Amino acid sequence: MRILVICGAGASSTFVAQRVRHAAHDRGLDYTAFAGTEQSLPIDLDAADVVLVGPHLAHALDRIERHAAARGTTVVLLPDDVFNDIDGTRTLALVLGAVGTSGGTVPTAGNAT
């Protein structure tokens, strides 16, 4: 699964992406996570199965969801305290809850049956 984390400038999303990637790896999940910005979203969406939206972008959530829906991509608004999730496990749990799984292989827009 490919997880895109977006924020305003890309700095805080880089930390969240790194943490969720490590948490997935620790669980043996073949997930990737990468950071993007609100401006790079239209391009980055093509490479994402899930978009994690920084809490400070809540005002843009409807627009982000519209763009993502056109590609079959799941969107999750991150909680205000996401940056306190030092090991990424809580953020990973949000991803897993959004896609309806506890881990393993997740059907993506590109390989759904």
From TrEMBL:
Pfam families, A to Z: PTS_IIB
Membrane-spanning residues: none
GO molecular function: transferase activity
Keyword set, alphabetical order: Kinase, Phosphoprotein, Phosphotransferase system, Sugar transport, Transferase, Transport
PROSITE patterns for the chain: PTS_EIIB_TYPE_3 (PS51100)
PTM sites of type Phosphocysteine: C7
Enzyme Commission no: 2.7.1.-
Gene3D superfamilies: 3.40.50.2300
Domain PTS EIIB type-3, residue spans: 1-105
UniProt protein name: PTS sugar transporter subunit IIB
Source organism per UniProt: Microbacterium fluvii
